[in-house]
Amino acid sequence: MKEDRKRWNTRFSKRPMIQPSTPEFIEEQIEQMLQGTVLDVASGDGAAALYLATKGFTVTAIDISEIALERLDFFAQKLNLEVATCVMDLDQPSSLTSLGTFNNIVIAHFKPETNDWPLLVSLLRPGGKLLLSTFNLEHHLKNDFSRRFCLEEKELVNVSDQLALEHHASVNRNGSYMDDYLFRRVDLPYLKPTIQPET
Question: Tell me, what CATH number does 105's domain have?
Answer without folding.
Answer: 3.40.50.150
